[in-house]
Amino acid sequence: IGGDTANYKRWYFAAQLDMDDEVGFRNMKLGKLSRKARKAKKKNKKAMQDSTPEDAEETLNQIEGDNSLEAADFRWKSKMNQLSPFEMTRQIALFLLCWGEANQVRFTPECLCFIYKCASDYLDSPQCQQRPDPLPEGDFLNRIITPLYCFIRNQVYQIVDGRYVKSERDHNKTVGYDDVNQLFWYPEGIAKIVMGDGTRLFDLPAEERYSKLGDITWDDVFFKTYKETRSWLHLVTNFNRIWIMHISVYWMYSAYNAPTFYTHNYQQLVNNQPLAAYRWATAALGGTVACVIQIAATLCEWSFVPRKWAGAQHLSRRFWFLCIILGINLGPIIFVFAYDKDTVYSAAAHVVGAVMFFVAVATVVFFSVMPLGGLFTSYMKKSTRSYVASQTFTASFAPLHGLDRWMSYLVWVTVFAAKFSESYFFLILSLRDPMRILSTTSMRCTGEYWWGAKICKIQPKIVLGLMIATDFILFFLDTYLWYIVVNTVFSVGKSFYLGISILTPWRNIFTRLPKRIYSKILATTDMEIKYKPKILISQIWNAIIISMYREHLLAIDHVQKLLYHQVPSEIEGKRTLRAPTFFVSQDDNNFETEFFPRDSEAERRISFFAQSLSTPIPEPLPVDNMPTFTVLTPHYAERILLSLREIIRE
Fold it and tell me: Where is the 1,3-beta-glucan synthase component FKS1-like domain (predicted)?
């Protein structure tokens, strides 16, 4: 329960239950660290890093009053290290008991963690220890799980003629598993849990909450945490950065190469050029385009995410900051266009236009790399605990370190450098002359009966619009093309680095497999009794082959050819192990023995196993030192309870 990667621990800190255990939700301002707490956090950070198990007590006294996540994690680990094996086992047993009768609540893991927390507090309290009689059988299932199950069921089914029939309610009006689960992500959500008489559950002492779980009216607690409307506007919010790095850059490229649109009295034969200020300012409107996209994405998010959900971000601040940046990008450009004549050169306008172009570039780059939620808010700051839940449950990505991190940066820099270079020279410049000609073409035509000459007069503009739209689509496709090309090149390079290149002789992978099993799987340095390498290798290899035989992936004939066999030794009375010819046959083209069906699952597994061992992997550990993990959430259609007959058959 207390492991670093345990879901219960992650939820416990995300929902700030450590703060509730210390001071209580009713006595604190949720989601914020006081100024005093922030100072204490900085002061105690080094003390926690330098702490050893011997001076843990002294460090705990030093960080008292520090409510930061780092201090809470240190206190948690100190507490877990002091638990006896009996207490650890009891924690796991209690969780398994809760999980075993949780029914559909298993699909809401953080809700189950909340129930476990209440049950654990009650179990450790004098109220439970001094109770003369146990709770009635089925109390947990009937009083706690059944109301939750009924709520979830009633969202999908309704009673018609005494039978449950699936209701026709749309998904965007159904409070589903995610909505139920996300209530427990934030302390503000947990604080909204009230009983029938209006009393907040967390206003009660921790040991009394379990007994009151049955009094909660869940219909008044749960609500939709996301408005799942069927709208194309989701594309604006979810892909805002994709739009910015394509539309804004496309605008800059096209505007710079379309001088006919902002040149005074342009003539094709003369090819007179616009004022430099106008060319800079027109291209600089790309920054304004980026701001408009961000504002549109924010307004759409306002309509999708209910404000009463604790995980909803503060959009007002972001909206007004975006409006300010829009004004910074647009205001000086309006000055250039509105107050500067397009026939007279102005040094001031030239400087303003050039400066605003680089401001626009900075705006586009910033909005392209910064997620929408990280704009002008504390959403991505590690110093606050307001959004720990979102970082824990929706943004929990394995961090890259060292060379891998720099390689990731290099991949994306290469992708966009190649994409923007190629798109400019092959897409935009090829559109320059058509824009120059079609934008100034004057059609001399009679038209047709219905519309006269109205349509044919603007035929060049229609063709130009279609060409620009087609180029814009190709501008998007270029990104995908270069992503595939660069990703392939880097993947091949990474394969060479890891030793799994397709150019590596295939026979080497199998001929060296026994040695790699010994060196990369077996922790031989920690063995008390030393065995010959061949004995240890044979145990691993034979276990793999026999397991595939039990799964009906190999026939008995194949198994006999692949196993290590005991044979009489040259020394009388001794026996030795004979390695299968499979390992050496891969190095000799004269062997025609079939060791497994061609293109079968067995061939795929053995090849994958051999290839994996040819890559750099960490040093092997003894079984006692291996990290353990357990996954208890079943698939939706997976059966949990089996009859004795089915167990025997399995």
Answer: 86-198
Contacts of 13 (CB under 8 A, 6+ apart): 69, 72, 73, 76, 388, 392
- Alpha-carbon span 179 to 161, nearest angstrom: 29
Q: What is the DSSP letter of 290?
A: H
CA-to-CA distance for 415 and 480, rounded, in angstroms?
A: 9
**Exposed / middle / buried, residue 20 (Cβ in 10 Å: 0-12, 13-18, 19+):** buried
CB-CB contact of 224 with 189 (8 Å): no
Q: What is the gyration radius of the CA atoms in the chain, in angstroms?
A: 34
Other beta carbons less than 10 A from residue 270's beta carbon: 8
Q: In DSSP terms, which residues pair with 65 in a beta bridge?
A: none
Q: Which residue has the higher pLDDT, 281 or 444?
A: 281
Residue 149 main-chain phi, psi, to 5 deg: -60, -45
Sequence spans of domains, the chain: 7-220, 227-395, 398-498, 507-625
CB 295 within 8 A of CB 326: yes
- Distance, in Å, from the CA atom of 190 to the CA atom of 117, rounded to the nearest integer, reads 12
Provide the pairing of β-strand 163-166 with 575-578.
Answer: unpaired
Q: Are 596 and 480 in contact (CB under 8 A)?
A: no
Lowest mean pLDDT among 14-23, 127-136, 502-511, 521-530: 502-511
User: What integer is the mean pLDDT of 23-37?
Assistant: 54
Strands (E), 226-300: none
| Cα–Cα distance, 177 to 455 (Å, whole number) | 55
Q: How far apart are the C-alpha atoms of 11 and 30, rounded to whole Å?
A: 16
**Alpha carbons 373 and 391: distance in angstroms, whole number:** 11
3 state SS of 165: strand
Q: Dihedrals φ, ψ of 567, to 5°?
A: -130, 155
Helix axes 459-498, 249-256, angle to 10 degrees: 130
Give residue 503's pLDDT. Answer: 57
Hey, is 250 helix, strand or coil?
A: helix
Q: Distance (Å, rounded) from C-alpha 492 to C-alpha 488?
A: 6
Tokens describing residue 271: 């090819």
Cβ 415 vs Cβ 479: under 8 Å: yes
Given a cut of 70, whether residue 480 has pLDDT beyond it is yes
Tally of residues, the chain = 650
565-568 and 163-166 beta bridge pairing: unpaired
Model confidence, pTM: 0.76
Cα separation, 573 vs 508, in Å, equals: 35
- Residue ranges of alpha helices (H) inside 183-227 are 187-190, 209-212
CB-hemisphere CA count at 13 Å for 352?
22
DSSP symbol at 563? S
Name residues whose C-beta falls within 8 Å of residue 587's C-beta, 6 or more positions apart in sequence.
507, 510, 511
How far is Cα 122 from Cα 97, in angstroms, rounded to an integer?
A: 15
Judge whether residue 636 has pLDDT over 60.
no
- Give CA 562 to chain center in angstroms: 42
CA–CA distances in Å: residue 599 to residues 549, 583, 584, 595? 16, 18, 20, 12
Give 3's contacts (C-beta < 8 A, 6+ positions apart): 9
> On the CB side of 551, how many CA atoms lie within 13 Å of its CA?
11
No. of helices (H) and no. of strands (E), the chain = 31, 4
Structure tokens at 120: 């654990």
